[in-house]
Records
---
Amino acid sequence: MNKITKKLLSMVSDMDDLPENSAFNIREDSSCAGRHSTEHVEIVGKTDVPGIDIRIKPNTKGESIYIPACITKSNVDDLVYNDFYVGENADVIIVAGCGVHTDSEESSQHNGIHRFFLEKGAKVLYLEKHVGIGKGTGKRFINPQTYMELAENSYMEMDTSQIKGVDSTKRTSKAKLEKGAKLVIKEKIMTHGEQFAETNFEVELNGEDSGADLMSRSVARDHSKQVFRSIINGNTNCMGHSQCDAIIMDTATISAIPELTANHIDAQLIHEAAIGKIAGEQITKLMTLGLNEEEAEAKIVEGFLK
Amino acid sequence: MLELKDISFSADGKKILNHINLKIDNNKFIVMTGPNGGGKSTLAKMIAGINIPTQGKILFDGEDITTMPIYQRAQKGVAFAFQQPVRFKGITVKDLIALSANQQINEKKMCGYLFDVGLCPKDYLKREVNTNLSGGEIKRIEIATVLARNAKLTIFDEPEAGIDLWSFNHLIAIFQKLREQQEGSILVISHQERILEIADEIIVLANGQISKHGPTQEILPELLHKERCKFCIRQEESI
């Protein structure tokens, strides 16, 4: 594992060392830089396509599984398929995330396709951070795709963030929920310079009493552009909520495009979207506490994306 | 400590403050009152740097701060509690108190400020200062943040606005505690007789001019006798 990988790992997974007692797979420039399974979590490489299968036994409780991917140089075009099979009543944390470093004018990209299959009563907290670093002028692309199938009474929470350095991202998250299943997605994005970020949520609420809460908070600075699309189809007695909350700065552009479809009389679907600049009174308040205008603005953005 | 010299302020062609001269000494508790629209909030915001006078000078500890930015005045020791507190998405009560204290502050001390304003710290420290807080809650949090400033001059713009009677009684206790413990002066804009009663001095501002300024024992009886019905009420009567 090289130095850049170590740096990226600490940024995307808060890992300073390999987690000895946890299952993990570290992907470095399209290769495996380390893998470890545990009694309850088995990680095996795929034979047909690049990627791994992660099998979590039923009733596994309290384990954390680390699946980060790092690209440490320019001119890497990485594509990976990772499938997570989460057994009945398991309750685990999965830490993924991707860091891309470019050191020349050549671009690099990571396309991570993650599929989650949660069995009855399973519970997953999925943490995913994306960052881009490096002095190279090459563009850094990260395009994550997440597909989730939630069986009866399962629960999945996905906390995903992209705070800096990624020039372009197209983030797709699709889910199908059965009876009593719940999905929560919390997304935080900041774009600057000429960056572009597109989010596409698509959720099918198929089971009775299923529910989805999709929340995006974002800040677009400079001349960056963001698009947020949120599709929820309520096909039965269910509850769907999507929210896009965005701060726009400088000459940025933000679009929020909701699409709610109720295919059942008892489907309750809500979308909220708010896009606006930082309120002048917020800056004034923080200035009365001794912060200058730039510090006040930074604090407001930091709090908003916390 | 604070001296306003011939301060005037106009906005949209209208004169709001008209040749104000005022001195506030160290360790005084001063209440400014007067009819609505008389210029009280404008004057308070001018001291904090939110408004800049169109004429005149503001001296703070002998230094000319007339055009000094808000944050530099704050760093020099001016604190300001807004009449309509500002809300933030994502910033917690704990964040705001820590920013106000401008130093490493332990949780016990933070809890003390919240306790002083009648809020249970356990319930509030981690809460966001957003629209989920009621008017009364956010008002108390605003006061807690200002207490944490421990400033040379603390200005409260109608602290009683939007709070209930129980909180109002707490507010009186807070001011009394501030007087006893804090080294510095307090300037409160208020219409409430019970706040006026505990002041060292009262200023009456009407039509952009100071019509009265003097010790409470001189000014208050005059106000109660002549002008109470106009703008000065007891809190109990107003709710």
---
Amino acid sequence: MLSKISKEALLGPLSRNNPVLVQILGICSCLAVTAKLEPAIVMGISVTAITAFSNLIISLIRNTIPNNIRIIVQLVVVAALVIIVDQILKAYNYEMSKALSVFIGLIITNCILMGRLEAFALSNKPWPSFLDGIGNGIGYAIILVVVAFFRELLGSGTLFGFQVIPQAFYDMGYSNNGLMILPPMALVTVGCIIWWHRSRNKDLQEEQ
Amino acid sequence: MKGLRNYLSRIKPNFMPGGKYSKLQSVFEGFESFLFTPNTTSTSGVSIHDSNDSKRTMTVVIVSLLPCLLFGMYNIGYQHYLAIGQAGAGFWDMFLYGLAALLPTIVVSYVVGLGIEFIGAQIRHHEIQEGFLVTGLLIPLICPINTPLWMIAVATAFAVIFAKEIFGGTGMNIFNVALITRAFLFFAYPAKMSGDAAFVATEPVFGLGGGTLVDAFSGATPLGQVATATTANPQITNIVGEPISTLDAFIGLIPGSVGETSTLCILIGAFILLFTGTASWKIMLSVFAGGLFMGWIANMFPSATYPASSLSPIDQVCLGGFAFAAVFMATDPVTGARTETGKFIYGFLIGVIAILIRVYNSGYPEGAMLAVLLMNAFAPLIDYFVVQSNIKRRLKRAKVNN
């Protein structure tokens, strides 16, 4: 069903070419929205939708874009999609829209988007570009969810807002780690995931 | 001695690669070099060795920490018996209570920290280094006595892994490991690290002490009282409501983190460090100068919004962790500035920033920890500019001569 290039475009970004772990893109939003699981998942879905469709649209019109204004054209496409996602969230999930506040709008500055448009969509056919967008979006979303899982579990003792650490633990003297809620620990958590990922994939390690 | 040496030599092959216990090689070497001077010599280049190796340096620092440690133990007991209304309890009662209360923290700090260092050294086939000897004793001294042991364990593990091992182990860390432990605790568990309940042990320990608290009891530290004060000239009191003078703050029978209360004992430690040439007098002096300077400026403009500004400069350096940070934290040779001019700048800025945070940021009653950590980050930059300006000056001189 999938040609080799399509398969690589879809599955590569999940691990071996992960936008966060390997390309180190999209770190800022990774720190900002991962204090809780729910916003992280919504953010992941939003970014996936936007990367997929911006890749598709840019790839469709790639031969008509003059090279010296291509960044402007890309921005217009991305901005339009971001506004659509923002409006949909406002209409159907206002609470989440409030919780994510400016970070949905800031997807437009997410490095993954520009990176994929420049590196892939401008030089590939629409179908692989679309898959590449989905792959990178999901690759980003996975990291967001993993980081948010640990931050919410250790920082608030909850998952999706439900308390998972039993009350008996708190009675015995356990307390939530307030530092996990703060952005620095998101950076440390991402660092730990990168550490684990590199140790699993020896060829990604830099020469000593 | 000879028998021990022979015994070690006999069991040594078991720990070498291929031996029965080769997984414990670094542990064995750690103990061997702890007991005997290693007989390895450098294989390349010309090296000058003197007898003052890192093991001896660490030992001197430990010795200089002993006055603070012993006084801290006594003070824990003193505060406890004061809180339960038995201020007349004997010296040994107080000291033994403090010893019993503090010992578990020291044990946890060493076991967790050294455990991680041993495992890390074994995985990477490094030698075990002595760096944690000092850190492991600093951690109990800069934490409130009521910090739960599991929190000490978590914070120590975090600091050793993320502030030290990741950067390459002893001598390679950017930030002071003990202070990272303290900062982790402070930001992760603020409820346990500040306020009334943190600094005075009120529970019986191993059957020692214990009793009902007196009515007037309040466990707030002097700086805690100042930070929450609403008037321009707050009256600082001890835990049963009697006023505290500057002399009390200097001697140190006040509530606070274990080793930080007694400026007198810290100065004894400072004397040992300076007399043996272990720590830099330039850093120590300039930290105090910076603290006094900023304390003087703040005191020029006392205001009710920033109640700590009404403290005199002398009070500023005697209260809280300032003196301890100046003597034992800022002088850390690994994380501090290394150029001679840089040491003055580095120390002075620590002093200024510590008081600046203390006075003008009401969120933090004490700023010494944050000031040292911040300047740790800037120390390489200071060194860089000192070196660059030296180069520039000499280049200029060379041109004039031509």
---
Amino acid sequence: MSGIKNPVGAVAILSLATIVTLIVCPMIGIKWILPSNIANDSDLRFVFLTMRLPRTLVAFFAGGGLAVAGMIYQALFRNPLADPYTLGVSSGASLGAALCIVLGAGGSAFGLSIVTLGAFAGAVGSILIIYTFAWSKESNSSTLLLAGVIVATLCSGLIMFLNFIGGLNQSFQILRWIMGGVDGASYSLFFIMVVPLAAFFAIAGILMPQLDQFLTGDNIAHSRGINIRASRNLFIVITALAVGAIVAICGPIGFIGILAPHAGRMMIPGVRHRLLSLCSFLLGGSFLVLADTLARSVVPPSEIPVGIITAMLGGPFFLLVLFRSKNRLLM
Amino acid sequence: MNTPTPMIQVHDVRAVYGPHEVLQGVSLAVERNQRWAIIGRNGAGKSTLIKLIAGLLHPNKGALQVNGMEARRYSARKRAQIMAYVPQKPDGVIPYSVHDFVMLGRYSAMGLMGMPSHKDREAVREAIDICDIHHLADRLMSTLSGGELQRVLLAGAVAQQTPLLLLDEPTTSLDPAHERLFFEALGRLHEQRELTIVMVTHDINTALVQCTHIGALLNGHFIFAGSAGEFKKQCPAVLEEIFKVRFERYVWSEGKSEAFGAWGVSCPE
């Protein structure tokens, strides 16, 4: 395929699909809640407004944020396998959460549970390690990826150790946290997550032309006027902070961050990053909303952790697309 | 009136790459509007020199000025307004259309938001004209042949509208037909604007036709740096000194044209 498809049409279709998803999905659950119910039934209205709606919003922005973060790391490292967790942010967050669970730290502060705060602290810790390394003389795309893998592996080892010394109940809590989910979402959690995300989208949106240059290779990008190291490190830190905010609240939900950007590239080959980030955001957001809707409706009254759904839906779908695509991976 | 500063002033530059010193005190002055070819054996330091000028590497010792200012003092954006660099080939697949890629060359001229102005579109149109790649404009870069890709890379640099163009073995992997198209594009460019070119090349005969000056590197030193005419007079001896193989001079059209050919035979001692 050598031609460029119509990007405006693709974005229009995506936007429409997103709007439909955002309207229909909150209605679906153990019990359907239709607009007439919201008007007449105060119990269902309560469920809709205080549970379904914030949950849908959290899922949408978390999914969208992960997709944009994945797109940025894929471009920055010119690696189709990169995802939001590549630099070990989610492992750091998981370690922080696991530590709080094992230490039995209960309660809450600033409207957030201690486990969530611990997760965010863990994420920030891993970002600091990577960021310090990123300014060292030896850092380049490959060594940074390697450093991320090492941080992630180290954290996984420590989480396993915590699992080992923790009680059965604590181990289960850790495992459940790592599966990720948006259940228990509230408006306050939504706002706490969406403020750093909004800052991330604004800054990243402005910087997108620099990201375009990264995919031409370091030498050409440098010649075009990009300060490679400064630009790369800025992208790393704003993206990592956004991912940290999402993971602290939703846990490390997998697959969206790697899948949505590739789906966007396959829809509109050759697209530049500002538009691709919009497509990725809409795709990732809608996908997580759909996955969460499934998670709470498949085996009522229990809920499946949404991370399981994203992997089970996303994996086969992505393999199918990959096998059938003439473009393979477009980067 | 002062005489204009040279475009590039290299003074006693040393550059260490890994365990050995690739450039061992190199000096060179490139005046405006000159076209230089840097020749030499593999590993002689040609690419290192051009990367030093491009600001991709920094000298360990010595001074290197471009357009009257120390090369390493340029901000990334300012540098991109003075010089454009064309690599031998890109680091990987570039996932954009040809038109979009050429537009990326306008980065340093655009504002923070990277929105192309009328002037940017004009510059892209002109670059596409000069490099004769109209028919490729809507293609994805990943679908281009090597010869097409090289002219597209050139177009990206042309769109930068810099007074200095750096080419690192731009035609090494091209067949003679595509090499001709590449140099025709370069010729059109040179006709349209004042331009200083420094290129690294292995093709001595092309260099003698296309360039006004030759710099010949051997073991980290220039053993010749001067006009192409003077270089021809010293050939094939200087070529044999560099490459340690026999070179022959071929002359035709009643002495108006000449070329040098190597036969892969060692020089007589």
